[in-house]
Amino acid sequence: MNPSNERDPYVVNADLIQDPPTRFLGQLKYLGPGFVLSAAIVGSGELIATTTLGAKAGFVTFWVILVSCLVKVAIQVEYGKHAIHSGETVMTAFNKLPGLRLGKAHWTIWSWVGIMILKILQVGGIIGGVAITLNIAFPLIPIWSWTLSIAVLVSLLVFRGQYRFIEGLSIILIGLFTLFTFACLAAIQYTPYAISWAQIAEGMSFQLPASALAIAVGAFGLTGVGGDEITYYNYWCIEKGYAAYTGPNDNSPEWQRRAKGWIRVMYLDATLSMVVYTLVTAAFYLLGAAVLHSRGEIPEGYDMVRTLSNMYTETLGPWANSLFLIGAVLVLFSTLFTALSAWTRLFTDAFGHMGLINFWNLAERKRSLIILSWIFPLLWGAIFLFLKLPVLMVIIGGVLTSILLVIIVYVAIYFRYKRLPMSLKPSTGYDVIFWVSAVAIFAMGVYGVWKLI
Question: How many helices (H) and strands (E) does the chain have?
Answer without folding.
Answer: 21, 2
